[in-house]
Amino acid sequence: YVQIDTINVIERCHHHILYNRIPAYTRADLATAQSEAKTVFEFWTHALSDVPVRDFRFFVGDMTRHRAAPVRWYADVTPAELRKVIRRVRAEGALTISDIKDDVLVDKDHPWASRKPSKRALQAAFYNGRLTIARREGMLKTYELTTRHFGWDRLPKAASASETSRYRLDRALRSQGVVSLDSVCHLDAAAKPVIKALIDREVRARRLVPVTIAGAGKAAHFARPETLEEETAPPALTHVLSPFDPLIIQRKRTALFFGYDHLFEAYVPKEKRKLGYFTLPVLSGDEIVAALDLKADRQEARLLIQAWHWVGKGRAKTHKALIEAELHRFARFQLPEDA
To answer: Which residue in 115, 121, 193 sits closest to 161, CA to CA?
Structure first.
């Protein structure tokens, strides 16, 4: 899955993450996958994310739980408000919060809230699976009936608890290669007992093997035998990473594997920041060698380097030219696609 985030001092992270993995990627590709091909959908993983539709059934259980126990930011939505917004979408078609103009406005209770009560109702219907986000323009979401968007008679049958646990472990092994209990259950401590039992069974069956990592202490790590046996060429590319990139989103894991402690300081007062507002780690080969505080000046069509910090084994003599070459490519990605 690919995390979605609102910060756009450079291109938003869901596009940035895909750009680093797909050289010819354009912003329109994700829109096509979501709205036309309908091969991805948005839902909560450890954060709001784009997820393959083939995995939808593994999230139906969460949707059911959201109906029974709504989370706090929309827990006060009444059944009548929920029915009203769903009837409106069913009758009028897909809509955004901007299309709803007859709400009685209320005061915000936090900075990210909307003054329109219907926004919470839309969120509630989204998290319980009745609505899906059919299209996204920037951060403006278009909601549609989930079944109508995908052409389904009903939602897919929910995966069982054991199937969902297996899915989570397999997903982590595919994306991370070497996993720990913490890395599989990122921000979900409640899942740890079940996942630990599954890992133990996989080790006994020899489908997983323990991996010793220097500095990991008592934190056990595991991999599939074929992963460890696979021969791969040493990585040679240089990438400017999003702070929300799956490679580094788990900060303790990043520190263990790369010896780099990332500081996310977007919400830190300016006078207290050490690296910068939105600092991006630079991966060169298999080392994080620099941290750059970048900003896209879209009006002037240029990328601003507000701070450049060498970290780890990063050295100007070895890495500066490689990073500058990647920055030229990265800068082009920041510009409007019709520029």
So the answer is: 193
What letter represents residue 285's amino acid? G
CB 247 within 8 A of CB 283: yes
Segment 139-167, tens digit of pLDDT: 899 999 999 999 999 999 999 999 999 99
> Rounded to the nearest 5°, which phi and psi values hold at 81?
-65, -40
Q: Kindly list the distances between the CA atom of residue 131 and the CA atoms of 141, 142, 233, 271, in Å, as whole numbers in the listed order.
A: 11, 10, 44, 43
The whole model's pTM is what?
0.93
Domains defined for the chain, CATH in brackets: 2-150 (no CATH), 161-229 (1.10.10.10), 238-334 (no CATH)
In terms of Cα–Cα distance, which of 142, 138, 124, 130 is closest to 35?
Answer: 142
- Beta-bridge partners for 210: 222
The span from the CA of 67 to the CA of 156, in Å, is: 16
State the DSSP string of 202-257: HHHTTSSEEE--TT-TT--EEE-HHHHH---PPP--EEEPPTT-TTTSSHHHHHHH
Strand order across the beta sheet in which 279-284 lies: 238-240, 279-284, 287-297, 302-310
Beta bridge partners of 305: 294
Helix ranges, the chain (H)? 13-21, 27-31, 60-68, 79-92, 117-127, 146-150, 161-176, 181-184, 192-204, 225-229, 251-258, 316-334
Distance of CA 184 to the CA centre of its chain: 15
**CA–CA separation, 223 and 206 (whole Å):** 10
State the average pLDDT over residues 269-296.
Answer: 97
DSSP three-state, residue 41: strand
| Element housing 160 (H / E) | none
* Tens of pLDDT, residues 15-65: 999 999 998 999 999 999 999 999 999 999 999 999 999 999 999 999 999
Angle (nearest 5°) at CA 256 between 254 and 258: 60
**Cα first-last separation, the chain:** 29
